[in-house]
Amino acid sequence: ALIYLLKYPYLACLRPTQKMNLFQSITSALDNTLASDPTAVIFGEDVAFGGVFRCTVGLRDKYGKDRVFNTPLCEQGIVGFGIGVAVAGATAIAEIQFADYIFPAFDQIVNEAAKYRYRSGNMFDCGNLTIRAPWGCVGHGSLYHSQSPEAFFAHCPGLKVVIPRSPIQAKGLLLSCIADKNPCIFFEPKILYRAAVEQVPEDPYTIPLSQAEVLQEGSDVTLVAWGTQIHVLKEVASMAQEKLGVSCEVIDLQTILPWDIETVCKSVVKTGRLLISHEAPVTGGFASEISSTVQEECFLNLEAPISRVCGYDTPFPHIFEPFYIPDKWKCFEAIKKMINY
C-alpha cells in the first residue's frame, strides 16, 4: 500500500480503503459511476443478477432495472445499442461475457464506434461508450474462454484498449475509460478476478491512460507485458536476479492503444535488451508492434535481438494449456539467451 501511495500520491487522500479482489474493484468502479452519473447504464448478458463473474452484483437492486439490465445473447446488438446510447449523450457501459465472443460485434466496434466521430467531422461521437470483457487464460477455458484479442483492436484508430493487472489498477483505469471521450475496450484478466487482492479506495479515482508503469527498475534487460503476464515477469525478474545476477526492469504497459512508446524506449536505451511477453499467438501479436517500434527507435542501443515470448500459432488448447502459455521458464530461457548473445 505504501508503494502505491508513493507512486500515486493522490490516493493518499482517498479514505476509507477496503480489501477488494479484482472483480470487487470493478464493481466498486461501476457503483461509483452509477452514483455520480445519472445517465450511466450497464447492460449485457446476465449483468442483472451480477454476471457470471459477479462484477455487477447488487447494482440492479441499488440502481434499478432501467439502469442495470440484461440483453439478448447478441454481441452485435449489445455494442450497437451501446453506440446509440452513447451518441444520444448517455454513458454506456457494455459487457461482453467473454472476450472470445467479442467478434460478432467486431463490425460495430471497428466500423461504427471507432469511426463515428471521424465520419461526422466531430459533429457526433460515441466517446461515452466503454466495453468490458473478461480476457485471457484461466486454466481450463480451452478454445472459447481463453483468448486475448487485444491485437485485433490495436489496428483500429479511434479506439482505446486497456488491460489492468490488479484491483487498484482495475478500478482507476476503468474509471478513466468511462470518463474518456473515446470509445474504450477494457479487458479484465479473468484468472485474477479472485486471485488478486489489494486495499482499494472506496471513493472514485483515475489512473491516466496511455502511461506505462515501471514496476521494478533494472539495468540489464527490459521486460514488458500487461494483465496476467505482468505477474509472470515479476517472478522471472526475481529468478534472473537470483540465478543469473541479471537486473531486470519490469514495465506494465497498461494501455495497448495508444501505447506508451516513450517509457519503453527510455528503458531499452538503458538496458540494451527487450523481452515482450503475452498469451496471444506470437504472429501479429502486439509484441510485434512493440518490437518493430523499439527496433526503429533504439537500434544502436540494442545489445541483443528483441525477444518475443508468446502463445503459439494454434487455437488455445485445453489439456495442453500448460505447454501453450508463455510461462516463467520460457521467459527465463529467453533472458539467458539474450544475456549470452
TrEMBL record:
Enzyme Commission code(s) on record: 1.2.4.4
GO molecular function, a single term: branched-chain 2-oxo acid dehydrogenase activity
Keyword Amino-acid biosynthesis tagged: no
One GO location term (cellular component): mitochondrial matrix
Chief location: mitochondrion
The keyword Transit peptide belongs to this UniProt entry's keyword annotation: yes
Domain Transketolase-like pyrimidine-binding: 20-195
Biological processes annotated in GO: branched-chain amino acid catabolic process; response to nutrient
Location in or out of the cell: Mitochondrion matrix
Keywords associated with the record: Mitochondrion, Oxidoreductase, Transit peptide
Source organism superkingdom: Eukaryota
Catalysis: reaction(s): N(6)-[(R)-lipoyl]-L-lysyl-[protein] + 3-methyl-2-oxobutanoate + H(+) = N(6)-[(R)-S(8)-2-methylpropanoyldihydrolipoyl]-L-lysyl-[protein] + CO2
Role description: Together with BCKDHA forms the heterotetrameric E1 subunit of the mitochondrial branched-chain alpha-ketoacid dehydrogenase (BCKD) complex. The BCKD complex catalyzes the multi-step oxidative decarboxylation of alpha-ketoacids derived from the branched-chain amino-acids valine, leucine and isoleucine producing CO2 and acyl-CoA which is subsequently utilized to produce energy. The E1 subunit catalyzes the first step with the decarboxylation of the alpha-ketoacid forming an enzyme-product intermediate.
Quaternary structure and interacting proteins, as annotated: Heterotetramer of 2 alpha/BCKDHA and 2 beta chains/BCKDHB that forms the branched-chain alpha-keto acid decarboxylase (E1) component of the BCKD complex. The branched-chain alpha-ketoacid dehydrogenase is a large complex composed of three major building blocks E1, E2 and E3. It is organized around E2, a 24-meric cubic core composed of DBT, to which are associated 6 to 12 copies of E1, and approximately 6 copies of the dehydrogenase E3, a DLD dimer.
Protein name: 2-oxoisovalerate dehydrogenase subunit beta, mitochondrial
GN (gene name): BCKDHB
